[in-house]
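To the team - alpha-D-glucopyranose complex, inputs and output below.
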Amino acid sequence: MTRKNQLPGDAHWWRNAVVYQIYPRSFADANGDGIGDLNGIISRVDYLAALGIDAVWMSPFYPSALADGGYDVDDYMDVDPRIGTLEQFDTLVEKLHENGIRVFVDVVPNHSSDRHAWFQEALAAPKGSAARDRYIFRDGRGENGELPPSDLASHFGPEGWTRTADGQWYMHLFTKEQPDFNWDNPEVNQYFLDTLRFWSDRGVDGFRIDVAHALKKKLDRLPDRHSFALSVMKDDGSDPLFDRDEVHDVYRQWRAVFNEYDPPRVAVAEAWVHPNRRPPYASEDGLGQAFNFDLLASGWEVTQFKHVIADNLHSSAESGSSSTWVLSNHDVIRHATRLVIPGYGTSEDGFDIENQWYQNHRFDHGLDLDLGLRRAKAATLLMFALPGSSYIYQGEELGLHDVLDIPADQMQDPQWHRGEGKFKSRDGCRVPLPWEPTGSSFGFGPGGAHLPQPDWYAGVAVSVQEEDASSTLSLYRSALALRRKLYESDELEWVDLAPGLLAFRRSPKWISITNFTDEPIAITGEVLISSDEVVDGMLPGNSTAWLRSF
Ligand code: GLC
Ligand code: CA
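Output:
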């Protein structure tokens, strides 16, 4: 079916797309209430077009109490009135499509919010009712059911079960405001098929699927669990909570819905699973693409980067998909800061070092942030040279650092508030963007900003960087324009150069070289673009250059 507001094009547009993630509440605020909104995004469509991206992915903009930044959804088929209306959503899609930019929306199928009509109905309904069966309700243990049904923690800290007024408990893998759906219930299944059609009919081109690996659970014996690290998760489909083979039955049905449209709708899975279990999520009869977060967990080290790239190219070839690459998103410390955090990338489970460092050092970070930015630009330019699609996060094109010193009483992230000092706050990468060097919220909007913006924003605002050919923003724009011209195929051939250099050829005319060391290294060839200036044939330490040939 071809629908109104449709961007025509071939069915494979997503394979090497550059997708820009918008965190709607922090992008641009049109009405001055301090919260980003759809009209704000509409007013910045020219900016997105000038950046040269292929698509935007919008994090949740649905009605929500914001217990988890909007990943607690009250209604999957509406827009939060603080953010806009469905009509404004249609206008936004239309404007983006006019500029050749596709649109992904975020689907959060593992849990709703506790304000969702179904959960409210479940609370009001008796034990054992059909309304309760849409979620995961159980009796407690102990003489009077006063103990939780199992010893389950949530991702953001204590208790994965919460007790209701009549004594039963419900399961939530995240905050208590995010009750998990029962995906064995056919109504739940149907509801998400309807949701996918609802947005597809409005012209949405793709979906980012939140916690895609958790939907199906095996709860005949309720699991005890305190860690959600990959190392404790089973990698053979036998884990009771995650990555069960049955989840792919769900995605096969979703695929059938995607294929009702022309071009078919697409999706990318957020699936924190063992790498050998990723291909089915990315398969052609599944969601089609899956995030690999391996670059998020890598330190600035040449062999780590090389392995991550080689392994992922191999794995995407196995699924028939293309690879995805991510250096920043709304859940991690921005890469311009992260890439100089001591010890980063040396832990098996990725994020514990970052969490610990954050707790101890955020007010007195002592980081070489200039070096961080140089590494970030080098890593980004490397990423843009890779086959597959790159997912970039709002503000990274400005080289933003994480805002580490947000006072605890102004933080919003439940991971921080529930985390008992074990987890970082994700607010530092969600601070509203600086568009202008002055003004009450650096041009974010005519009012304030819902998270405190730092003074250094003045120097990195969009309008300042637009005037500066050597800015991070100019680098992103030029690199993306060049990538469009140079990208011919998905082939990548490694080129062996000096130790500390990571080099590969993408086409006879395109070679990317990254210098992971701190010393300049001689290179030969015509420089097309570089993240730091190449002088007298020397590629500076911590930088990347694209060359025409040797
Ligand atoms: C995903 C989102 C994260 C959210 C969680 C629960 O990991 O990226 O922001 O907190 O799911 O929905
Ligand atoms: Ca607003």
